[in-house]
Amino acid sequence: MSWAFRIVLGWLLAFAGGVALAQSPLSAFERAMMPGPVIEGHAKYENDCEKCHVRFQREKQNDKCLDCHKEVRADIQKKEGFHGRLTNVDTRPCKVCHTDHKGRDFNIVLLDQATFDHDQTDFKLRDSHTRVKCESCHKPKKKYREAPGKCVECHEKDEPHKGKLGKKCEICHNEVSWPVFVFDHSKTEFDLKGKHVGVSCGHCHVNERYKGIPTKCAVCHKLDDKHKGVYGQKCEDCHVEQGWHQVKFDHDKDTEYKLEGQHKLVTCGQCHTGEDIYKEDLKKDCYSCHKFKDEHKGQYGKKCEDCHTAKGWPEIVFDHDKDTEWPLKGKHKKVACTDCHPGDLYEDDAPEKCYDCHRQDDVHDGQEGKDCGKCHSEDGWIKQVDFDHDLTRFPLLGSHATVACEECHTTTSFKDAGIKCIGCHKPDDVHKQRMGEECSLCHNSVDWKLWEFDHDKDTDFKLEGTHKKIHCERCHKSAVKDDLELPMDCFSCHEKDDAHHGSYGRLCNRCHNTESFKDFRPRWQK
Predict the structure, then answer these.
(1) Where are the domains of the chain?
(2) How far is the C-alpha of 452 from the C-alpha of 440, rounded, in Å?
(3) 3 state DSSP class of 173
(4) Which regions in the chain score pLDDT beneath 50?
(5) Residues paired with 236 in a beta bridge
């Protein structure tokens, strides 16, 4: 058999096999060529290829799919649903997303819940629905398109009205939350205003009752009536829907007692304590209401209005500066009345002198007298003390003018401070008191180093000869407490230098002079 004959025979057998396949349900050849078992949903069509395929005509494949899935075809035609909103849906083969012949358990719905855009469907997720899990609406073994689309289908169990308001929940509610509703109550016979706007429906519509609801304030607010019926049942005569505390009753115009200041904040029950507001007779004087709050305990009488106003107890109209002979200045402005008026205001005389009140505050122990005003003012004991030290026994001169008070006055008993230099400057005395305690004989208050002393003029002992070169301490050897007095005869200092051993007496100057002991001339030779 030639090769050409074999080729022709092969073609004939293949053609014959094709014809046989076309005439049989599923031949062995077709079963061998099938990619794999179909999904469970298509299992009943597995032996009927023509149910889903058209031989040699791939362009008709989508029509085959849509012949069975009519709801998808309707979505595409109407441009609705998920498939109707897909781009190029008319030309895109279904098998791009839904591939079959992958086995019975294969899921041909390629849907990623994490990235799926629900806005591509007929039910956009808004507000609270965005937080709902997919399986809450899409039940197992149910098509996604079979999920409920009406509120009542999901929320029938949550619906508190028990069907009495119908099934169109969207008329009042939205996806934000059940309590957020858009029902316009103003179209009813009772328009909601003020505080009524925030009241939940169930407060008035008990047991879902919507007809025959009372509209009188007292019917609903009987338990809220703090007046306990004293003011009657016409709440609307005083109150408004904005709140119980906001009243339209004008006490200033409708009564003979005008409410001013703090009285505007007082509740009605604080004054109207009786059982019937229309029968009680209230007194109008301050003391009748405030006698139990009188901090003065009757000390200032009963005419509260002489000092106080309705704006508050701390605000008074009494002017101590104008109405008395004692104007309050400085610290006195903050002093409590009882500090100066401990007794009866109209019988006891208040003190007028500083010392009468501040005797215990006198840190000077009476040394400076009783007239505190000479140095101090009402601004404070230590603030701007006006005191002229030059009027004392010790005027401040030179460096003393810049010395702090406490340098000399170590206590508040100022007169205890001494006026002698040595009292403060004993540690500075380089002479160790050999020159006495009168430092001012040489020094002045400008500076220790600026001293001036002329021994020839200021003493009875003129320094001559070698005496001019002698240091002070050669003669002033011991500390002096009182007056400085030294002997002026030569022998007192030069006793050790006397070569005559006292034979010629103590008057050395009869022979010697201050230039030198060696240079001498007896007086009888002069």
Answers:
(1) 1-25
(2) 10
(3) strand
(4) 1, 3, 6-24, 526
(5) none
